[in-house]
């Protein structure tokens, strides 16, 4: 297992303690290295031929830094290295795992694919970003409704997705959904 991140400036920096913007600048690769304890490489160096699969975690950073979904929605652009990584694994018929908001990357890069970001309605207040499902459909993709502890496998494209934190759920349910995504990616590898 190797971890990669793009060597780009973050769109913005948020003070998560206060929930407000910070005035500083940060680099995505440097911040990712902090989280990964330094064991990380520039995404530009990733060679799909050296790996059996790729998994993209989610989080708002995906929507702000790996693409511009946070600002542009379905009209977003995808970072060139993220796009080329997805294309390389897809072309090699290697599995791609995506969780939380990152399934929008596949929806943007692979028209016609199937993904899930949970439910298409805000069921019991658990899916506050349910409109993401309709945006995915507007991109020509099929959104599959799934519970937080489930994943969806698009067998034709070898794309496995789960909603993770797109659902307001207990951590153990989010953990279970991510676990099923990882298991399904490994089955396809």
TrEMBL record:
InterPro entries per UniProt: Class_I_gatase-like
Coiled coil: none
SUPFAM superfamilies associated with the record: Class I glutamine amidotransferase-like
Membrane-spanning intervals of the chain: none
Gene3D superfamilies with a match to the protein in the record: 3.40.50.880
Signal peptide feature range: none
UniProt protein name: GAL3A protein
């Amino acid at each position: 297992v190797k971890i990669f991140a793009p060597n780009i400036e973050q769109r913005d920096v948020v003070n998560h303690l206060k929930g407000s913007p910070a005035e500083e600048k940060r680099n995505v690769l440097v911040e990712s290295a902090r989280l990964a304890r330094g064991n990380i490489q520039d995404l530009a160096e990733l060679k799909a031929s050296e790996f059996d699969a790729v998994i993209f975690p989610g989080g708002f950073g995906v929507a702000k830094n790996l693409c511009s979904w946070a600002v542009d929605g379905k009209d977003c652009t995808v970072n060139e290295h993220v796009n080329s990584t997805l294309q390389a694994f897809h072309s090699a018929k290697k599995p791609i795992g995506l969780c939380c908001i990152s399934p929008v990357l596949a929806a943007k890069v692979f028209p016609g694919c199937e993904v899930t970001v949970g439910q298409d309605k805000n069921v019991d207040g658990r899916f506050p970003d349910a409109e993401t499902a309709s945006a995915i459909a507007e991109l020509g993709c099929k959104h599959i409704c799934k519970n937080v502890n489930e994943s969806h496998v698009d067998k034709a494209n070898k794309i496995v997705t789960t909603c993770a934190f797109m659902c307001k759920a207990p951590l153990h349910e989010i953990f279970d959904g991510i676990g099923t995504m990882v298991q399904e990616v490994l089955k396809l590898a």
